[in-house]
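agent> Task received from the user: take the single chain below, predict its 3D structure, and emit structure tokens. No templates, no multimer pairing.
agent> Plan: (1) validate residues, (2) run structure prediction, (3) serialize to tokens, (4) report one or two observations.
agent> Step 1 OK, no nonstandard residues flagged.
tool_call: predict_structure(input=
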Amino acid sequence: MLNVLSDIDPIRVRFSISEREYLILARYYLNRENYDRGAERDKSRLVLLLADGSEHAHPGKVVASAQSINPETGTYSAEAAFPNPSGLLLPGLFARVRAPYRTLEGVTVVPRRAVSELQGRYQLYIVAAGNIIEVREVTPGPVVDNMIVIESGLDGGETVVVEGLQKVRSGMTVDPQPLNSAEKAAPTSES
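)
tool_result: status=success, residues=191
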């Protein structure tokens, strides 16, 4: 090989989503009511998250996709094109693709580190009446930065244990302290 030519404007990004994510997105986009509310427009608003945590300035859109789920990996592959007029993006860079597909309003969110998972079951420690710890099984939803939506099992306004999870047990009495606002807003370094 003498040379490699790459077209980098627009740059094409290949990515895969899980079978579960594919089903969520497919059901959303196939629902006629969502289509009428502009779901088709949402398809062209892909966001490229770069390795340094920043967002690429230009939204992208899906330009190609697989015909089936890969049976070896359980993933669905797609390719998106993102404008790259400055040439910032180069082939081989690591990035993640975010695809907004619905807007959640009036949901309950908690810091991601407050949720414990064991064998596919998710739970939170709640500070109940009398500052007594109660374990509550919950159903988690989408994750954004360091916050996770709790779809069921938690009512808004309840106090959730975020720090010291390894020390608390159901039935123990605690002296709850509010989480400072800087900790609430700090982005997570986990992927």
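agent> Step 4: summary for the user.
The chain has two domains: 11-98, 108-179.
agent> Done.
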